[in-house]
Amino acid sequence: MALSLLSEPSAKGHWVGVVGIEDPGVVAIADLGLDLRRVLFVPRPRGAWAETTADLLDGVDLLIVRPPSRAPHAAARKLMDRVRERGTVLVVLAEPSAPWPLPTDVTFDVTDAHWRATSRLESRVLTVRVGGRGAAARGGEHQVVLPDDHGRVRV
């Protein structure tokens, strides 16, 4: 779901980045409309994930990062300061056992997932709980289909 968020911005000419996802399924996300000419992949930043993320913030409009473990508070604070300064959108993929240490504007929690299939896999259906601050505080659950019949993400 997170990688599908890159499709529209990259198709509209924006640079996007992915840090810390070892096998992003490039063919599958290209099928969702991701313009691979406008994406920077850093699959294994090892212990330098925070530095790599900070460096990419200067050159992309949307960045997805998956820290290898719980992010230290100081590193998260520096990244968030840089995000605000640059105006970049940062999407952090965090596990429940290693949550992001700072409050976030919007959270997405996948509460259910299953495949639609005939003789082949057709789409992934997710139930997503939305929460956060401001307007996102109203929350709610939504069903997301990846991809829909036209190859797009549908909510």
Tags for this model:
2 domains; four-stranded parallel β-sheet; alpha/beta; 30% strand; Rossmann fold; globular; 4 helices; 155 residues
Outline of this structure?
The protein has helices spanning 7-11, 26-31, 49-56, 73-86, and strands spanning 16-19, 39-42, 62-65, 89-92, 106-117, 121-132, 140-146. The protein has 155 residues and is α/β, with parallel strands linked by helices. It starts with 6 loop residues before the first helix and ends in a 9-residue tail after the last strand.
Structure report:
The protein has 155 residues and is α/β, with parallel strands linked by helices. The protein has two domains: 1-97, P-loop containing nucleotide triphosphate hydrolases (Rossmann fold, 3-Layer(aba) Sandwich); 103-155, no CATH class. Helix content is 21%, strand content 30%. It contains four helices and seven strands; from the N terminus they run αβαβαβαββββ. The protein has helices at residues 7-11, 26-31, 49-56, 73-86, and strands at 16-19, 39-42, 62-65, 89-92, 106-117, 121-132, 140-146. It has a four-stranded parallel β-sheet, with helices on one face. A three-stranded antiparallel β-sheet has the order 5-6-7, with no helix packed on it. β6 (121-132) and β7 (140-146) form a beta hairpin. The protein starts with 6 loop residues before the first helix and ends in a 9-residue tail after the last strand.
